[in-house]
Specification:
This protein is α+β, with helices and mostly antiparallel strands and 455 residues long. Helices cover 28% and strands 24% of the residues. It has three domains: 85 residues, Uridine Diphospho-n-acetylenolpyruvylglucosamine Reductase, domain 2, CATH 3.30.43.10; 112 residues, 2-Layer Sandwich (Uridine Diphospho-n-acetylenolpyruvylglucosamine Reductase, domain 3), CATH 3.30.465.10; 201 residues, Vanillyl-alcohol Oxidase, Chain A, domain 3 (3-Layer(aba) Sandwich). Strand 13 and strand 14 form a beta hairpin. Helix 7 packs across helix 14. It binds flavin-adenine dinucleotide (FAD).
Amino acid sequence: MSAVTEQELEGLDAFSGEVLRPGEAGYDEARRGFNGLIDKRPALILRCRGEADIVDAVAVARDSGLEVSVRGGGHNVGGRCFTDGGVMIDLSLMKGISVDPSARTARVQPGVNWAQLNRETQLHGLAVTGGVISTTGIAGLTLGGGLGWLMPKFGLATDNLISARIVTADGRTLTVSEHENADLFWGLRGAGANFGVVSSFEYRLHEVGPTVIGGLVAHPFDVAADVLRFYREFTADAPDELMTFAGVGHAPDGSGTKLALVVACHIGAPEQAEEDLRPLREFGSPVMVELGPLPYTVINAMLDGGYPTGSLNYWKSGFLSGLSDEAIDELLARFAVCPSPMTAALLEHFHGKVTRVAVDATAVPHREPGYNLVITSVWTDPAATEENVAWTKEIYAAMEPFLVGRRYLNYFSEDDVGDDPVRAAYGQNYERLVELKTTYDPRNLFRLNANVPPD
Ligand SMILES: Cc1cc2nc3c(=O)[nH]c(=O)nc-3n(C[C@H](O)[C@H](O)[C@H](O)COP(=O)(O)OP(=O)(O)OC[C@H]3O[C@@H](n4cnc5c(N)ncnc54)[C@H](O)[C@@H]3O)c2cc1C
């Protein structure tokens, strides 16, 4: 393994965070994240406590000539925040959150997750679009787009960024917003991990809850085709206040019982929510209907149990061209032989505000109404890895004829690297991103991400 020399470490004299090397206390904990499949060993971990620490860490990492990774929440399935033998700039100790209730803004550091941010904003009945699983980091999620319960009403997490602070590859510290470094602000919203280390995010907040109407409806797997056809109709004219996901998964008791599921969150007036959700409540003969008033923070954690930290994950996703009967039948036939009782195949419904933002307004091109299919394969036994990865590849290949070729980069697995997936992630915005990358990171220091190589 390459090492960082003592001379290079002299650049850390004033560093206020933690410096960890293999064998030192805390190293093993710091080098692991959400996905237990990712098992990398950085030569050096620099755990920053503030922007000045980040500046020093970037300098040491750059001068070492080693591979550089940047860790926010450490939740990425592809494990892009970890490096084998390189320098990991770890932001997970940076957990500052400052909410301004009257201006409806929040300034947030990159080690925060959605449970922590929602807790602070909900004190004031405010929120910004965030991840559906509360343990996910705000940083990677926002920099790659950020879809969630509030996107039909308020757009993606990244659409709600007012500004950010970033440390670039050459060590400059910049504010980016519509008014300052606007070109970089454009690219940061969707391709942000390519341009530097973001030290804070300023979000626009909105009135949400604190009580909203939502929950889950489950049907037996043998009527899953009917449920998904119903879902297609149900979502056809969904209001902006209502976000739903549907698909197939398993009972949480570990029995392996397969289920068809619709999960929902309605942030409108309670009477309107009841009316909008009535068809969902009344369709078919569900085995479970748990729909009702809940704190937004509870809705935001209700699916956490299905995605335990340290479980083994391999995901594939792509936007569907529609939800045809053929697509539904193919999905269900493949899911019927799914090897893990923790795996799900989900449809994320895109409509409302997220689809009314122009394709070139930010780096995120995914603005078409429709469905994003994500197969979240999750298991715990390392001996079952080969079987689960193979099954995921098979179902994804079977679904490819129904996909449009656009992909959400935040769901990439470790093998989603190179030109094809990255162009599928950025679409028509790709060439402009190459120009920006060439300007801000010409040596591609920040390449452990959905990487846009410089010219
Ligand atoms: C169980 C689960 C549920 C999820 N649910 C959702 C969801 O509801 N909506 C959604 O949109 N996505 C979701 N995701 C995907 C999620 O957006 C990504 O995993 C995202 O990368 C997580 O951010 P993080 O900060 O935890 O990531 P990390 O693993 O820390 O980093 C991911 C990438 O971002 C870069 N990065 C992180 N922080 C910074 C920074 N401050 N500056 C520069 N680069 C940085 C890293 O270098 C890396 O390339 C989910 C993922 C999982 C595993």
